Inverse folding.
């Protein structure tokens, strides 16, 4: 990002400045000179000549605005030109300029002078006098005069209504470009405001009210001049997402305590089980479980155990690319402990435990521990999505979906389900499309990880220029960046990819063994294909951090797809999901307990310590 610079002919002392007026400017070559002149003349009408400054916050312009602003700054010491080589966004430009301003009263208004300048003295004095901390003009108060075309007025009313409803604001107009802040209020709020574009001033006003600052809103006369730079599709939709983001941060996230999270996770688990009992007789499920072959259940557990050394070796290969060499046995124990944490604590709190274990027992820094965990998660998601996509495409290509639909039409669960030829074709088309998208996503992400150019931000930016989209782009870029940590080395990429495939293949084979333990006897090809898909979708459902160990989520997903895509009775499918998950969780718990004893690690301490470190890292990154 271009470095902002303060362009003046000579350094000038501004110790007597009380009021700083910032004019955000982007390609304003036709109006900026008149705007600055009118602003200076208006300020001279009620302030001492040396008590104010006017800052042109030029935001990466590509016209003559920088040249004009520099010339005016050279001619008048009270005028400053604050330049940025690249776009900072309207909010970003304002924040940078306010931070560099000398005044204790910080003012800004739009450069088109849509708000009548006779209101400037009232705006300034409401804050300068100390009566209020924040002041804003309003185009929606009873005494205002505002000539607003419908294409501006209606969206503005909807927007302000949403802000008042969701963010509990008492103001009528949050986006009138005519505002003032005390230095104290600005400094207290600036670090909390995350938007850097059109939502910036709305967020400032909302957070100012939440923080207890005195906010004044007064009616102004307003008349639009020229075309608005707000994109009614991109920017308004983007600001809607910012309303939801701010609502989450201010109203929801503070209430998500550990106790609430645990209670919600347990409630979700109970609700999931209760929901399944509405459609499947629990006694039938228990009957199926009671007839399970103990030898095959034990064999399923033995098969699943084989995946854990593979996990340790994969983690070893990932850490090696980050510059750390550790034994696969130690890393297997660390993974056991972290996965046990996920079973015990909701919201996947155990994920970060691994970073604590490798830091406490091997001195690997937390950033490297978190990065290695992210890389592993990326490969897991890519592998699971890829497997599901391949199976769907395979079933559609071989006619498997049509065969399954035919079986359903004969009434697998005892009822008659009529599936027409058109429905069969529709299922095949949809399944093929989903599979192709999944495979394309896997291939696209893998190729992006090896590409020199970054296409993510340019692609996402087509949908909106809002800072929330910048956040989404950052998340996707981090996703690709984590993959690049390993993708840069073809050998390492291949090893981690193959081990990921082996790990999830073992996971599926475990589920197949459980199905055989319950007496399922269907075509092996169909069973393998459907099992791969059901297990993949079940594990994708577990990605949502809603219940401890994904209990309930996995069972629902597995049961739905196993019963729908194979001739397996719903009660048997649910029994298989429950038993499969129980076998895997039991192996995880036993391995976790043994690992905690051998490595002398307290799970509770690990969860609390890793959570604290993670929160500090997130705070620093923001």
């Amino acid at each position: 990002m271009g470095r902002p610079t303060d362009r003046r002919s000579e350094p000038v002392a501004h110790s007597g400045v009380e009021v700083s007026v910032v004019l955000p400017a982007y390609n304003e070559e036709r109006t900026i000179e008149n705007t600055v002149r009118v602003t200076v003349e208006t300020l001279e009408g009620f302030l001492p000549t040396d008590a104010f400054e006017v800052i042109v916050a030029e935001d990466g312009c590509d016209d003559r605005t920088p040249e004009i602003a520099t010339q005016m700054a050279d001619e008048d010491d009270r005028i400053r030109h604050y330049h940025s080589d690249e776009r900072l966004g309207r909010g970003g430009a304002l924040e940078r300029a306010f931070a560099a301003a000398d005044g204790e009263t910080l003012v800004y208004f739009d450069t088109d002078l849509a708000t009548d300048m006779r209101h400037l003295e009232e705006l300034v004095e409401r804050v300068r006098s100390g009566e209020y901390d924040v002041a804003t003009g309003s185009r929606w108060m009873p005494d205002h005069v505002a000539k607003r075309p419908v294409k501006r007025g209606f969206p503005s009313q909807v927007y302000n209504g949403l802000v008042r409803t969701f963010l509990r604001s008492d103001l009528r107009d949050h986006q009138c470009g005519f505002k003032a802040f005390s230095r104290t209020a600005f400094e207290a709020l600036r670090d909390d405001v995350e938007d850097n574009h059109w939502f910036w001033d709305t967020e400032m006003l909302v957070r100012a009210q939440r923080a207890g600052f005195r906010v004044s809103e007064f009616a102004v006369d307003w008349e639009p001049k020229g075309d608005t730079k707000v994109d009614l599709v991109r920017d308004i939709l983007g600001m809607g997402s910012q309303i939801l983001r701010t609502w989450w941060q201010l109203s929801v996230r503070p209430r998500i305590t550990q106790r609430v999270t645990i209670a919600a996770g347990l409630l979700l688990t109970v609700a999931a089980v209760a929901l399944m009992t509405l459609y499947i007789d629990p006694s039938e499920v228990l009957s199926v479980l009671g007839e399970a072959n103990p030898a095959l259940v034990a064999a399923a557990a033995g098969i699943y155990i084989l995946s854990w050394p593979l996990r340790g070796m994969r983690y070893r290969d990932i850490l090696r690319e980050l510059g750390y060499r550790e034994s696969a046995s130690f890393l297997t124990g660390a993974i056991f402990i972290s996965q046990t944490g996920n079973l015990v604590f909701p919201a996947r709190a155990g994920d970060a435990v691994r970073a604590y274990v490798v830091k406490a027992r091997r001195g690997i820094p937390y950033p490297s521990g978190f990065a290695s965990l992210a890389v592993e998660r990326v490969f897991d998601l890519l592998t699971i999505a890829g497997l599901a996509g391949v199976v769907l495409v395979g079933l559609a290509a071989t006619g498997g979906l049509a065969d399954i639909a035919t079986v359903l039409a004969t009434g697998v669960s005892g009822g008659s389900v009529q599936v027409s030829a058109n429905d069969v074709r529709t299922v095949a088309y949809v399944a093929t499309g989903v599979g192709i998208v999944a495979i394309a996503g896997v291939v696209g992400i893998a190729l992006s990880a090896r590409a020199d150019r970054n296409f993510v931000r340019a692609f996402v930016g087509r949908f909106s220029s809002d800072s929330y989209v910048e956040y989404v782009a950052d998340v996707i870029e981090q996703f690709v960046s984590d993959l690049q940590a390993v993708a840069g080395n073809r050998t390492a990429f291949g090893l981690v990819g193959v081990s990921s495939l082996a790990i999830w293949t073992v996971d599926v084979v475990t589920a197949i063994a459980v199905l055989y333990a319950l007496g399922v006897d269907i075509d092996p090809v169909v069973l393998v294909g459907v099992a791969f898909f059901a297990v993949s979708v079940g594990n994708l459902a577990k990605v949502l951090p809603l219940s401890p160990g994904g209990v309930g989520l996995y069972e629902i997903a597995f049961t739905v797809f196993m019963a729908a895509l194979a001739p397996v009775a719903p009660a048997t499918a649910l029994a298989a999901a429950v038993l499969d998950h129980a076998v895997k969780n039991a192996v995880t718990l036993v391995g976790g307990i043994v690992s905690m004893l051998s490595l002398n690690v307290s799970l509770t301490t690990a969860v609390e310590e890793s959570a604290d470190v993670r929160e500090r890292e997130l705070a620093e990154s923001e």
Observations:
- The two ends are 17 Å apart (CA to CA).
- Residues 309 and 367 are 24 Å apart (CA to CA).
